[in-house]
Write a structure and sequence with these properties.
Distance between the termini: 43 Å
Order of helices and strands: HHHEEH
Structural class: mainly alpha
Number of domains: 2
Radius of gyration: 21 Å
Strand order of the largest sheet: 1-2
Strand content: 5-15%
Length: 105
Amino acid sequence: MAALEKIQEKTFWPIHIEHWQASGQSQAAYCRQHDLCPQKFGYWKRKSTVKPTTSPTGFTRIRVDEGISPDLAIGLSLRFNDGTRLEGITQDTMSCIQPLLELLR
């Protein structure tokens, strides 16, 4: 397979997988409608890193800073990729966190 065909295939399938997830159709129905090979579709679906955008899992990756001494840390701290930080999250302030996170999204 030529290099250009490989590149096209790597962009073609993820786009179809994303559209299928948004369509609400079964995989078979989507493949029939778009004249796609169901086996190739299944292969690329398994290989794909595309996540469904309609139903987030609620999980995220976290990293624990090893250099912080437990007796110096006051509550939980969250640092987001854009540089935003939430510090001092304790059991007493936990009820404020969910609405605050919703606002920041």
